[in-house]
TrEMBL record:
The keyword DNA damage does not apply. The keyword Zinc applies. This is mannitol dehydrogenase. Oxidizes mannitol to mannose. Provides the initial step by which translocated mannitol is committed to central metabolism and, by regulating mannitol pool size, is important in regulating salt tolerance at the cellular level. It is an enzyme of class 1 (oxidoreductase). Its cofactor is Zn(2+). Belongs to the zinc-containing alcohol dehydrogenase family. Residues 23-351 form the Enoyl reductase (ER) domain. It holds the Pfam family ADH_zinc_N. It comes from the Eukaryota. The lineage of its organism: Eukaryota, Viridiplantae, Streptophyta, Embryophyta, Tracheophyta. The gene is LOC100812491. It comes from Glycine max (Soybean).
């Protein structure tokens, strides 16, 4: 029989977990391993809320393990380091993102792409090397191998840094990899949520022209005046879509639900690339001729490796890329999930774990 989460490790830990596909979160006692020689233990101060957490809470990708403690945009302060840790010391401000383990020897790992390792270990809801289940950042402290921990530069506020760990790297990575990072290029960002608003900010910091493609007309003014987008197109308005045809060098599609791809492909110039990062649970419809007739491509991209995650954080610190956040207390999280489902957040919820996660005995 499986060992109870409260006693499988020596240290008592506390967080909020979903117990089933209702996704409702409630207080949960579990345990964490003691600090191993290459481990960093840190007190969680802030944790962002990603739409992936919502997909996982509701088992929309059919791979969730309950009890499930979500949270993969985790920022905190180091409280203990193992004897062989050389990157961090007690008191450092650090973060962990979506990954806590990989094989370290495959081609992907050797090329700093741990995210594509076949043995990658996600931060929560996965089996760790010792056979226990991983739990995420909606919890009081984390223990992680130093390889998967990154440094938060002092220029970044700790609460606003959190969304960079997942949303930030997920959009920054493909801009770089697919060459959509040259000043003057024209990028489309589909879906102005957590990922989308950071795609706009990174693209602007790189000198790109940006069109937001959104289902929410009410987001227009802020997208242009506050986030710095150049144009705003309502995807359900045929005239606006028609006017934007063949204008984009690339698209980052962050939409979390099933949506029509073909009108987006029409917005690309010849040779344009649509990079999907949103992960709807059902297949999308794709006709090939519109790709063939313009030598266009569709690709996907999954978070990023640890080296690039640190580069992205440093870039954000240096170029003043700051996620727009709504800081919430822990006990607001279920309401936050309902609002996230309705795209009612500007633009990322961040839980103030340090001040509001209190054990309920
Ligand atoms: P989010 O904050 O909820 O943003 C998603 C946006 O998509 C919404 O704000 C909305 O923008 C648009 N949208 C929602 N429903 C739609 C629909 N039915 N049709 C068209 N547009 C719709 O979510 P997020 O945290 O940014 O995450 C977005 C997606 O990326 C999720 O599927 C998540 O799991 C995935 N993700 C992938 C990776 C990766 O590595 N590839 C990493 C993190 C997250 P508008 O109101 O502007 O239309
Ligand atoms: Zn590997």
């Amino acid at each position: 029989m499986a060992v109870q989460p409260e006693i499988e490790h020596p240290r008592k830990a506390y967080g909020w977990a979903a117990r089933d596909t209702s996704g409702v979160l409630s207080p949960f006692w579990f345990s964490r391993r003691k600090t191993g020689e290459k481990d960093v233990t840190f007190k969680v101060l802030y944790c962002g809320v990603c739409h992936s957490d919502l997909h996982k809470l509701k088992n929309e990708w059919s791979d969730s393990i309950y009890p499930l403690v979500p949270g993969r945009e985790i920022v905190g302060e180091v409280t203990e380091v193992g004897s062989k840790v050389d990157k961090f010391k007690v008191g450092d401000k650090v973060a962990a993102g979506c990954l806590v383990g990989s094989c370290h020897s495959c081609q992907n790992c050797v090329n700093n792409l741990e995210n594509y390792c076949q043995q990658v270990i996600p931060t929560y809801g996965a089996k760790y090397v010792d056979g226990t289940i991983t739990y995420g950042g909606f919890s009081d402290f984390m223990v992680a191998d130093e390889h998967f921990v990154v440094n938060i530069p002092s220029a970044l506020p700790l609460d606003a840094a959190a969304p960079l760990l997942c949303a930030g790297i997920t959009v920054y990575g493909p801009l770089r990899y697919f060459g959509l990072d040259k000043p003057g290029m024209h990028l489309g960002v589909v879906g102005l949520g957590g990922l989308g608003h950071l795609a706009v900010k990174f693209a602007k910091a790189l000198g790109l022209k940006v069109t937001v493609i959104s289902t929410s007309p009410k987001k227009k003014n802020e997208a242009i005046q506050h986030l710095g987008a150049d144009f705003f197109v309502v995807s359900r308005d045929q005239d606006q879509m028609q006017a934007a045809m063949c204008t984009l060098d690339g698209i980052i599609d962050t939409v979390s639900a099933v949506h029509p791809l073909m009108p987006l492909i029409d917005l690309l110039k010849s040779h344009g690339k649509l990079v999907a990062v949103g992960a709807p649970e059902k297949p999308l419809e794709l006709l090939l001729p519109p790709l063939i007739l313009g030598r266009k491509s569709i690709a996907g991209s999954y978070i990023g490796g640890i080296k690039e995650t640190q580069e992205m954080i440093n870039f954000a610190a240096e170029h003043n890329v700051r996620p727009e956040i709504e800081v919430i207390p822990m006990d607001y999280v279920n309401t936050a999930m309902e609002r996230l489902q309705k795209a009612d957040v500007k633009y990322r919820f961040v839980i103030d774990i340090g001040n509001t996660l209190k054990p309920h005995y």
